[in-house]
């Protein structure tokens, strides 16, 4: 069942989204060579709660932390721990917060210091741009497949691949609501996009092939071929006049 949200709901979701956006910026600034990924979790937990919100990932199907930190060939759902970041690592940080019973969810990728090479730098850039292309395709009167197709086309045009096994999602009172939002598909297919639809669009892009595996910790998703992977996500809200990004500071 797909629930459409009111204008009032949108403003509540914006509050959650803004907190997620702010905390992601704090984390981005905190990333330093030599730091442990669990330090990012402590910061995230503290920064979310100090804004009056609650981390949504913690305890979600038993997930043990407030943030996901996925490094290099890790795609998503990396569990923060004693691992130390080093110069040139590609780090993806994913965060969710709930306030006033609405959820915000967003992710970004960055390098620790300089990128290791030009192709890695391009992977990150293309992944972020594919998210914004997908958001632009989220127009009332269009179809869900327009978003999926736009992301896929953008990514594959640059020689990278989109992960199939994990997808974006509807969002609202719950972090994961209907519909699923794949990063691959055909234009004109899927549900009709309407004002009041809130979506988390989240391209997960591999430098190599799209296949992934889950590590023995039961969470960490890695590329099967060991290639680098990047991840960007925004929570958006479809209005009559276009998509609004709720997890952006501006
Ligand atoms: N943002 C991710 C998602 O939308 C991460 C959630 S995984 C969790 O699926 F278990 F940590 F919550
Ligand atoms: Co998400």
UniProtKB/TrEMBL annotation:
Single Gene Ontology BP annotation: proteolysis
EC category name: hydrolase
Annotated a divalent metal cation 2 binding sites: 105, 169, 202, 233
Keyword hit for Repeat: no
Keywords: Aminopeptidase, Hydrolase, Metal-binding, Protease
Segments passing through the bilayer: none
Lineage top rank: taxon: Bacteria
Subunit details: Monomer.
Protein name, as recorded: Methionine aminopeptidase
Native organism taxonomy: Bacteria, Bacillati, Bacillota, Clostridia, Eubacteriales
Gene (name only): map
């Amino acid at each position: 069942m797909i629930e459409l949200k009111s204008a009032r709901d949108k403003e509540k979701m914006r509050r959650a989204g803004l907190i997620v956006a702010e905390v992601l910026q704090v984390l981005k600034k905190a990333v330093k060579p030599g730091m442990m990924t669990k330090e990012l979790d402590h910061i995230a937990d503290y920064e979310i709660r100090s804004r009056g919100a609650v981390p949504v990932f913690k305890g979600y199907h038993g997930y043990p932390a407030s943030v996901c930190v996925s490094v290099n060939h890790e795609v998503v759902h990396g569990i923060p721990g004693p691992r130390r970041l080093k110069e040139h690592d590609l780090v993806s940080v994913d965060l969710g917060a709930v306030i006033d019973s609405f959820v915000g969810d967003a992710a970004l990728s960055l390098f620790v210091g300089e990128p290791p090479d030009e192709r890695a730098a391009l992977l990150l850039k293309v992944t972020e741009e594919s998210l914004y292309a997908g958001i632009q395709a989220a127009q009332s009167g269009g179809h869900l497949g327009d978003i999926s197709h736009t992301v896929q086309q953008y990514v594959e045009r640059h020689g990278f691949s989109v992960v199939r096994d994990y997808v974006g999602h509807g969002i609202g009172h719950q972090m994961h609501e209907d519909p699923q939002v794949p990063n691959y598909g055909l234009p004109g297919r899927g549900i009709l996009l309407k004002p009041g639809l809130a979506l988390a669009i989240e391209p997960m892009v591999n430098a190599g092939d799209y296949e992934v595996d889950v590590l023995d910790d039961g969470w960490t998703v890695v590329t099967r071929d060991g290639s680098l992977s990047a991840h960007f996500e925004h929570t958006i809200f479809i209005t009559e006049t276009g998509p609004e990004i709720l997890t952006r500071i501006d």
